[in-house]
Amino acid sequence: MVTDNTRRSLLKAALIGAAYPLAGCVSTSSQPAKPTLIGCSISGRNRFNAVVADKNGMPIRQVQLPDRGHGVASNAAIGHGVAFARRPGTFFQVFDYHSGESLKLRAADSNRHYYGHGVYSNDGKWLYATEGERGTSRGIIGVYDVTANYEKVAEFTGFGLGPHEVIVMPDDSLVVGVGGVHTNGRAPLNLESMTPSLSYLDHNGELVEQVGLDDHKLSIRHLAHDGSNTVLCGQQYRGEPDEYPALLAMHTLGGKLTPLQAEPEQWARFNHYIASIAATEDWILATSPRGNCYGIWSKHNQKLVELSPLPDASGVVVQGQEFKVSSGAGGVVSQLEPGEKQVLQSGVQWDNHWSVIG
Fold it and tell me: What's the superkingdom here (predicted)?
């Protein structure tokens, strides 16, 4: 089995070699690059950063992090970015993405840890972070007042164990990917009794709806929505290693979770794990760093239409109707739809997820 450290070493070597066809990676514009994308990166042994990039994924500036980051959030109204520590995380770091100045390093409460994700409210006044209670993994959404220097003002709970990602819907409600796993550090303790769910909360934190998948060993982790009412959720399979269930599903409030379709041998390529997800009106794209690939599904018939190799395929966002996909080997893929794509080399060892500004 390839370990995480081995995989990272191989990807670091790929940065030195010709891992991608290069295409226009140096801008000829005299205009200052506009911050458009933010993601976490690895820049050496025990060296971690949040990187602000332009619309093509070319780095503009970076902010040093005290430890490995995971998810990122951005607030265009005030120019803030937030990097969340990888679970079980001990911090989130707020910074000015225009200047690169670190504004606040917020340590987790003594009996809490962060799960690696958070999101701003639509009006930018609140920051929501997925958290857990140490010793029990009781799920919490921490609510932080942006105007009060990110003071914690509330906790939403009552939806299960081990929440991973939270997103905000257009109507200001929250959707939480609840993994259902009780952990000690990163070690799972309850795989036989885990209860994952997709949970909807109103803006006051009240549970509105909760749905699950038929296989309780599909831990719901990463989320996206299509700009309207459709939620996409990506799973980590915690069952038998030679079984390959569907790892991606879609849902609308009041309906059932609908698994997306691919052949078992295609799901096997994803190595039991979906990381980042993004959706347009017509297409859904999901990455798998463990599988070194990404897939594109038709949103209309839920079928896989493209499966592409990409070393350490990590973050994906949508700009307009175009997907931007990052790689731990430094590549940035731009793709409007299945088929033709452009790949640039950013020189950044991107890690996990991206946030698009605006």
Answer: Bacteria
Residues for the chain: how many in total? 358
3-state secondary structure of 331: strand
Degrees to nearest 5, angle at CA 68 with 184 and 276: 85
Q: How many CB atoms lie within 10 A of CB 186?
A: 9
* The two structure tokens encoding residue 133: 């209670």
Taking the whole predicted model, whether its pTM rises above 0.85 is answered as yes
- Across the chain, what does the average pLDDT equal? 91
The residue written with tokens 């885990």 in the block is 194
Say whether 148 sits in a helix, a strand or coil. Answer: helix
* DSSP per residue, 257-289: -EE-B--HHHHHHTTTB---EEE-SSEEEEEET
More confident residue, 32 or 179: 179
Number of C-beta neighbours around residue 99 at 10 A: 12
Which domains are assigned to the chain?
26-307 (2.130.10.10)
Mean pLDDT computed over 311-332? 96
**Based on the number of CB atoms within 10 Å of its own CB, is 8 exposed (0-12), middle (13-18) or buried (19 or more)?**
middle
Would you call the peptide bond into 88 cis, given omega within 30 degrees of 0 as the criterion?
yes
147 φ, ψ to 5°? -75, -15
